[in-house]
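Quick start: read one record
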Amino acid sequence: MIPCNVVFVDIQPTMYGKLCRIWNHLASKSRNDYIVLFGDDVRLLDCGWPQKIEECFRNISTNTGLPLGAACVAMNDLSFPGFPTFPVIHRWHLNQFGTLLPKQFVNQGGDPFLYELYSRFKTSAWEVSCRLKNTIGGDGDARYQKYHINWRGHILNMHIRKLKKSVEVRNISGVCLDVVVPSYRTNNNDYLRRIALLRASRDGVYVKFWFVVDNPCKNHVDEVKALANELNAKQLEQSGNYFINVIHYGANRGASYARNTGYNYSIADWILFLDDDVIPDDNILDAYIGGIKRFPDAKVLAGMTTLPEATNTWTTMLRVCNVGYFYGVSKLRRHPPWAVTANLLVRGSRFNPTIQFKECYPKTGGGEDIDLVYQYKAFYPTSGLLATAAVPEAIVKHPWWNGGNLCYKQIRGWAWGDSMCILEWPSKTFMTFPNWIEHVTFVILPLAIYTKQPVTGLAVGSVVIVLEHLIKMSRYLPAALKQCEGDSIFYQLYVALGAGTVLSAQEITRVNAILRRFSLYSICRRVDWFDGQEPRIKLDIQFGSIIRFVLNVGITSIGFGSYWQEWLNQV
């Protein structure tokens, strides 16, 4: 039995309901080494918890080499699992900061603030064997009005800097990295389980998972919650780290909204976005942590998203046209212009709260990943090319869309979304001559209506379309010959032709978007996918557009020759 010394402290009426300020006041009166604030509704469930807490502090000091007390140890609150509701702090903290919590805190946020502060130094820990139950308070309604403050940004950063000076370290060694997964697909708990079981091999890595259920289906929500409860119960036998949080809002608001939700809930320094249908390598967290160390100036780290080998004619066409180039861009470029959000690590929202996924992009995705990376580059202009970096060792396996069957709908969705980038990021675009569908839509069609020659217009348009796809077929034929080695030349030509239709579907969709948005500015304007890194590719596209335009104008002039002749005779 440890002797207890009970001290009664008067609380002035002006402090009623202001628990953080009460905590500061009580801590200032304490003369002991360890401090924790319990409410009068807390039930302690394990004997010997003070000794265990003290031992945990000593182990942290021994393992890190930091002063005894430069740490935060959280107890296991069964009524609010995974949250550091009752952190224990040492007197060393009061000696350095002069108070337990910054004066801005009123009655919310103090617990996670202390835990997050020390986690950057690898000195936050859980003592899960010290269990308690918060019978009245917690996440629900309280007996007082709750006041939340935004402490995740400047307040936390200021105290991290102060703590760095106090412990005399140049760089913080703890890594705080959260994983955000938007989940719409049903019956995919096997994928979510693989993600939730990801672990880092080193100590001092603090990870939380955020599964954001973007599906109103109650069964799906219940399945994801059951999975989280199962895995959390096992994890809490060892630590409160790697806790799974499930968020749902009873609606399908799209991938961008779901990602924003997890992104904004997180307090981590880094956010890893993963899709709910990818299979990540077991070492993906280690790979990204290595990337953070190698590229200290990077704000966006692009992992390697691998697509399966071709399984049928359609997936062979997708391989030939290289529509998935940016899925594997980390293997091709050290500083990618952008990368897909199926596997992307970005700086946490607490550093750049104005960066958000925009809801103007399609729910199912398309363009929002380009936009997000461009936002980071604009927010950190001094980083330049170094704002992005490739981590090809951070690998996930991505399935073929629509199970490997025709997926023009998915492809059109990408094009609809990336066409928005023209309006959102005009400085990232360039001009070309009209492509085939712009020529058909804005030249041949008006000309056929004006001259009252619809049959001629149809014939001329058909010739332009056929010529365009013959050009595309010749472009993709070398890749088709390599991909379909051993097959007949007719099949190889068919694959090359089909590969061209993938690009054509996107071009048609972009013109449709122009018409639907009444955006004349977007006509003949293209997004620079390489963000200025490849001027030769841009020149090649522009030069190719000149050749195509000359051919298309020639065909149109010949097709409507009789009208021109009549017009000249009348003149």
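Residues 454-483 form the longest helix (30 residues).
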